[in-house]
UniProtKB/TrEMBL annotation:
It comes from the Eukaryota. It is a multi-pass membrane protein. It catalyses: S-ubiquitinyl-[E2 ubiquitin-conjugating enzyme]-L-cysteine + [acceptor protein]-L-lysine = [E2 ubiquitin-conjugating enzyme]-L-cysteine + N(6)-ubiquitinyl-[acceptor protein]-L-lysine. One of its GO terms (cellular component) is endomembrane system. It is an enzyme of class 2 (transferase). GO terms for biological process: proteasome-mediated ubiquitin-dependent protein catabolic process. Keywords: Membrane, Metal-binding, Signal, Transferase, Transmembrane, Transmembrane helix, Ubl conjugation pathway, Zinc, Zinc-finger. Pathway: Protein modification; protein ubiquitination. This is RING-type E3 ubiquitin transferase. PROSITE patterns: ZF_RING_2. One of its GO terms (molecular function) is zinc ion binding. The keyword Zinc-finger applies.
């Protein structure tokens, strides 16, 4: 923001001098209305920049005009054993592996993509191309590249702020 302020000051010196100083080199009549409007527009620009910097770049855009976000987070569907009537962890999805860390999707992994012992995950992330990953694995991958690690399809960004 300091760079923008210094640039704006250097650009504004001439118009403010010509329209604000009564003895300017071009003998233009001072215009308080022009000075007020000019400073208002500059203040508005810096106000918008400050809001974008503190609240995020999408803050001033109404939600109806924003691109629809893809919901990556999915939950495992446990199947019911019809004979015993209990929930089992042997759903068809439980044997699948995350191709980023090579651990099963049911194992919870930490930020270093290492399995956490005795921790079972109830959620996973599914891309629009229907590939499945651990949440930490895919988020770490998407910080580097917005492509599916399996098929290289372009992925929409994963955003947590709204």
């Amino acid at each position: 923001m300091g760079y923008a302020l210094s640039q704006q000051l250097s650009i504004s010196l001439l118009p403010l001098y010509l329209r604000g100083c009564p003895t300017n080199i071009m003998s233009l009549k001072p215009s308080p209305t022009f000075i007020a409007a000019y400073l208002f527009v500059i203040g508005l620009q810096f106000g918008i920049m400050h809001i974008q910097q503190t609240k995020g770049p999408k803050y001033l855009i109404p939600k109806r005009f924003r691109a629809q976000q893809y919901n990556y987070l999915q939950t495992f569907i446990d199947t019911t054993d019809l004979e015993s009537g209990t929930l089992t962890a042997n759903a068809p999805e439980t044997g699948e592996e995350c191709v980023i860390c090579m651990y099963t999707l049911r194992n919870q992994v930490n930020n270093e993509m290492q399995p956490m012992p005795n921790m079972i995950s109830n959620t996973y992330m599914r891309t629009p191309c229907r590939h499945k990953f651990h949440q930490n694995c895919l988020q770490n991958w998407m910080r580097v590249k917005l492509e599916c690690p399996v098929c290289r399809e372009v992925l929409p960004p994963f955003e947590t702020d709204e």
